Amino acid sequence: QVHVAESGGGLVQPGGSLRLSCAASGTVFRFYAMGWYRQAPGKERELVAAITDGGSTNYADSVKGRFTISRDNAQNTVYLQMNSLKPEDTALYYCNAVIRSTYYRPTNDYWGQGTQVTVSS
What we know:
The protein is mostly beta strands. The protein has strands at residues 2-7, 10-12, 18-26, 30-39, 46-52, 57-59, 67-72, 77-82, 91-100, 108-111, 115-119. The radius of gyration is 14 Å and the shape is elongated.
């Protein structure tokens, strides 16, 4: 009964900015972490950024200094602020949430449907 949904993708020019949102709804007993992944045509899926309930963050080398991940614990929501976008950032971006839905259930990963980000002039 956990649903993860992304939003905020679109078409932007090189050097532009975009903000992605990811919200986990439904039964959430304990939130552990949420992160952003992306996959471009002909390339492997890669971790873009992640954040834990303790506030620890991790970024891919290719986006360090340009992307920032943040969270709203009360809403089980994470954001990805993307600045100085490059054509190489073009990809389908997925949100992943690590959540324990109830006391009697183990921790699981929940994935969103993805949101397209296209950087082109």
